[in-house]
Amino acid sequence: MTRISTRRFVAVAGALLATAATWNGVAQEQSAGDRYARTLAEADITARYNVQLEQLVRSQEAEIAKLEQETAGLDATALDVQPLLQRMFDELVQFVANDVPFFKEERDRRIDVLRELMARVDASASEKFRRLLEAYQIEMEYGRTMSAYKQALTDGREAEMVRLGRVALMYRTVEGGETGYWDNERKDWVADPASAGQIEEALGIAKEERAADLIVVPVPAPQGGRS
């Protein structure tokens, strides 16, 4: 049986998190000096960016497929691989904790299930590896999708959320109709009544009640970044 390459194992783990983080970096760079970022204003730039991301994701998916064929070999070298598996898990936990807090309950629950799995001495290294890869791929997918759902704000008020990849997370409270967005620099929700129309439009698109269109969304400018 082929022995899995630990270097390749670590490289794929790092690449997956780096890809998931790409959307955050691009969002901040595009919003520097301008609190209101036109998320899809330049269609040609967006198209080229999406092509690059798709190529990167396809490359990583091919690498993952190769690794999955070799996961049985992990069990034979479990002592060597266990620290690498723990490193993958720890980096995933840190990434989710620092990320925009969308689907918080779902993502926290996934981390808790993985934490229990990592602590089980009867769980094989290949099973831990497979489940970690699944979690990484889910995090990658979040960066290129849009969704609407309900979630409580920090103060307990129920709100409708609309997530635009990792670029923006906006809300409209169920009672009162307050609108705003998440500021990841401040780690807090920011009320923004001036963006009520744009958030309403984004919610409609995410719920498939409106046709997809270019929209302007509130994105906080990074503190201390380029302008």
pLDDT < 50 stretches: 1-6, 26-43
Number of helices: 7
Strand content: 15-25%
User: What's the helix-strand series?
Assistant: HEHHHHHEEEEEHE
Query: For the residues shown, what is the average pLDDT?
Result: 76
Largest sheet: 5 strands, antiparallel
* Cα Rg: 20 Å
Residue share in helices?
Answer: 55-70%
Overall number of structural domains: 2
Strand order of the largest sheet: 2-3-4-5-6
Number of strands: 7
Shape: globular
Distance between the termini: 54 Å
The helix-and-strand class reads alpha+beta
Summed up:
This protein is of the alpha+beta class and 227 residues long. It is built from seven helices and seven strands, in the order H-E-H-H-H-H-H-E-E-E-E-E-H-E.
